Amino acid sequence: MERKMQFTLPPALPEGCIANILSFTSPLDACRSALVSPTFRSAASSDAVWERFLPPDYQDIISKSSLKLSSLNSLSKKDLVFHLCHHPVILNNGSLSFTLDKWTGKKCYMLGARELSIIWGDTHTYWRWLSRPESRFSEVAELKVVCWLDIKGKIDTKTLSTKTTYAAYLVYKFATFRHGFKRSPVNMQVKFEEEEGGVTSIVFLDPPFATREQSQHRENGWMEIKMGEFYNEQGDDGTVVCSLWEADNFKCKQGLIIEGIELRPKRNL
């Protein structure tokens, strides 16, 4: 006698329970889960989920900018997260920007050129400061001519997301006329300020051969090149220093335009 197998579907989870589970994931996972069912879609859009994707101090960060927090409070938490992913919040009188990483919801910062230490940066003979419509900052630095390149950016780890591996990128482009970068590499390093040594990489900002290209084009017309990475455990490791300096001493260079140094969570591909 043939025995028929019977299957009983488990009871559906309450929407509030689903929302609580999704709040421990990421913006990307929440968006994907919305495709599962109408119940998941409703849970994945709730403020309870997206509030967890916002940094605990996001209101304090926004309050230090020219933005009015009241105008952002009218948005749903989901819309607020996406707004902060795509619209940089400008801080420190225009020299620093804050955004959220759209994949993880973690903090991203860009140190604008005015936030960096650029050797001879205030000497008009060597550098000039100008505005570019494609930049998020009111000023960027353009190299007129130097024979020694030395740029540093610093950020305190307590401002970043904890338990996160960050990568630092130089964001730059070249003027119409440039010189001295095609076959001259530069040194790059990212390390904690109190750390001895540190890993140094040698890169070409303007690679001589396409097969040796190390930089990537950004959607906004700038280029970026990875300087290094570090792990931020609890935000109590002090200051991280991102450095770029000359590899070939005393070679004349010109035409480099610096927008800043961006720090964002490393993506595991």
UniProtKB/TrEMBL annotation:
* Family matches, as PANTHER family: F-BOX DOMAIN-CONTAINING PROTEIN, F-BOX PROTEIN PP2-B11-LIKE
Q: Kindly give the Gene3D superfamilies that the UniProt entry links to this protein.
A: 1.20.1280.50
Q: Which InterPro entries match?
A: F-box-like_dom_sf (IPR036047), F-box_dom (IPR001810), PP2-like (IPR025886)
* Gene name per UniProt: LOC18602765
Q: Which domain of life is it from?
A: Eukaryota
What is this protein's record name? F-box protein At2g02240
Which Pfam family is one of those matched by this entry?
PP2
Q: Which residue ranges run through the membrane? A: none
F-box domain boundaries: 13-53
